[in-house]
Amino acid sequence: FEGTMHYNEAFSLNNDAIVLRGCIIRNTKFAIGIVVFTGLDTKLMQNSGAVRVKRTHIDKLMNKFIFTIFFLLFCFCLIAAALNAWWERTYGNDFTSYLVRKDVDNPDVIGTLQFFSYIIILNTLVPISLYVSVEIIRLGQSWLINWDVEMYHPPTNTPAVARTTTLNEELGQIDYVFSDKTGTLTQNVMNFLKCSVGGVIYGKDPVEGEPYSGFIDPSLQTALDNKQADVDDFFRLLALCHTVQPETIDGKIEYQAQSPDEKALV
C-alpha cells in the first residue's frame, strides 16, 4: 500500500506504517491514522468462501425419510390413478346413468385428475409435524444446557450458552479434536512454580486442588539476603531481559508481554 495522509503536514504511508488488525500499540497515548482495505478488500473477506451448511445425523436421516415417503406417496397416487383410468375405460360407461359426465368423458383425463385427488387424500402420509416436534425438543435441550450448573465457569462468571439448536444431539459424539497449538485447550495460563539457580532448584510442587498462591521458597529469599552471586545475577537477568511493559488500566497495573512465559516470570 502506498499513499499520503495530510494532517497539518503530509505523511507518507507505505507498508512500514501499516498496523494490521488485532495489533496492540503500547506506550502510546493516541495515534492518528486512516483505515485501509475495508469491506470486501479485507484479508478475511478475500479468504472467505461459500458457507457450508452443517446438518446433524438426525437431520440427514429425517430428510431421507421424507424423500422416501414422498416417493411412496407418488407411487401410490400413480398406481391409483392408473387403476382409476382403467376402471373408467372398462366399466365407466355402465355407470353413466348414475355418474353423469358433463364436461370430461376421456378416461385418461379422468385418471390424471384423480391423481391430484389422491395426493390430497393421502397427504397425511407426510409427517409435517415431525420437524416441528424435533425443533421443540432441541429448544428444550438448549434451555437445559443454559441452566446446567455444572457447565458454569465461576472464575469468569460465564454460563454455558447454546447458540444454536441444530447441533445439540451431536454432543458426546466427537471423533476427532484438532488443536493448532498449546494453549487452545489449556487457556495459556502459566504460573511461576520453580527455578534453577546455579544447579540448585528452588520452589515447591503444586498441591492438586489448591489455587496458585505464588512462588514460595524461603531458601531463595535467604540466598538473596546473603547476596549470593548466582542469585543476584538470576534476578538481574529477570529484571532486564524481557519485553514486558506495564500499563495502568482503571488504576491497576497490567503487564503486557509477547509471551505468557515472560509475563509469568515477571
Spell out the key features of this protein:
266 residues, alpha+beta, 7 helices, 6 strands
Would you mind describing this structure in some detail?
There is one protein chain. The protein has a two-stranded antiparallel sheet. Strands 3-4 form a two-stranded antiparallel sheet. With 266 residues, it is α+β, with helices and mostly antiparallel strands. The chain is built from seven helices and six strands.
Counting DSSP H or I runs of 4 or more residues, the number of helices is 7
Tell me which oligomeric state these chains represent.
single chain
Let me know the average pLDDT: 82
Structural class: alpha+beta
Q: Would you identify the regions where 5 or more consecutive residues have pLDDT less than 50? A: none
- Proportion of strand residues: 5-15%
**N-end to C-end Cα span:** 38 Å
Counting DSSP E segments of at least 2 residues, the number of strands comes to 6
List the helices and strands and how they pair.
Layout (H helix, E strand, L loop, with lengths): L2 E5 L1 E5 L29 H5 L9 H35 L15 H15 L6 H20 L46 E4 L2 E4 L14 H8 L3 H12 L4 E5 L2 E5 L3 H6 L1
Helix pairs in contact: 2-3
Summarize the structure.
The chain has 266 residues and is α+β, with helices and mostly antiparallel strands. It contains seven helices and six strands. Helix content is 38%, strand content 11%.
